[in-house]
Structures are given as C-alpha cells and as structure tokens.
Amino acid sequence: MSGSDAKIVSREPLMIRDAVWTKLVKTTYTDPNGKTRTWESAERATRPKDSLVDGVGIVAVLEKGTGPEIVLQKQFRPPVDKVCIEVPAGLIDAGESPEVCAVRELKEETGYVGEPMKGGFGISPVMFNDPGFCNTNLNMVHITVDMSNPENQNLKPELEDNEFIEVFSVPLKDLYSECRKLEKEGYAIDARVGTLAEGIEIARKWKL
Questions:
Q1: How confident is the model at residue 144 (pLDDT cuts 50, 70, 90)?
Q2: Which of 24, 27, 128, 176 has its CA 20 to 30 A from that of 153?
Q3: How many CB atoms neighbour CB 156 within 10 A?
C-alpha cells in the first residue's frame, strides 16, 4: 500500500464541538492607527503547556561516500488531496526537548538512527508555518545519520496504523531539480522541503 491509494470520500463543515486536533479563534486587536479589527485564525489543540513549539521538522542527512543525501517522505495529506513530499516531522510530547523529539520521530517514521548536529546548528530558531492563518510553529532539527551504523542498514520504522509513509533520499545538490521533477509527476511539495531546496539553489547561484 502507498499514499497514492488513499482517496477523499467526502468533505463537510467541521463543528467546533467535534474538533479534536484544531480550534478556530477570533482575535480582536487594534492596528497601528488605533482602529479595532478582528482576525480569524486556527490553532492546534495539542501543544504541551511546557513547550514553546507544536513539533519539529527534521533535516536528516545521510553521510554517504557519494555525497550527503537528505531523507524525504511521500505521504498522502487529505487537506490538499495529494501525496506530499515532506521531511520527517512530528508533534512534541510533554516534557520532551525538540532534539529528543526529532531523534524519536526520525526512528519511528523512517527507521533511521541519528544524532543532532553539534556546534550550534542542531536546532533552528522557532519557525511559524503560516502566521497569517494559524499559530502553528516548529523547530527544524538538523540530524546526521551515520550509514556505517548497523541499525541504519536494516531499517525498521515504527509506524502507527494511520501512517502510510514511503521513505526515500535525494542528493542534497539535486534537491531543487528533484522538487521540480516530483511536482511535474503530480506530487505536492511541502514548504519546508521547497524552502530548503530554494536555499541550496540560491547559495549555488550567488556562490555564497
């Protein structure tokens, strides 16, 4: 089975009393001119009280002799009715640091065992996914995967029964062109993947 086998059966309005994962919020505020305005937005209902973020995105880099490769996933996402190209990611548990969450989620979703990068590059600043629409946020955690580790030779993901994830990797130097190719094939490109690809391409073009 793969994500491409999933199909939307119906769509209908969601009543607030039936929502489990999200909630809608109406915010009243004053603009710089002092005028009172309102804003409609959404919030996750799952952020632990002791956490500054909802979850993590994981930039997992496979250290290969042929060059570094980034771990990606194909996963069906009902809101866009497409299989999306994503980095591994997940919601943070109460009492969990972003680094611990990232290592756990990477193992569960892909089977890879890795370590956060050192030297201040292990974790990103807090990033907001779509601040005009919701308050959802995350840390990107950068993880290296030692391919000489026997655990990374025989991968054993620990997926939940509602997760259907196909894992693959792409050379970092080819990420931008691969995103273009996958979009033409009908996949949706997650913004985190697209932004990483753009960054690599910009650095290449302007020789940063």
A1: very high
A2: 176
A3: 8
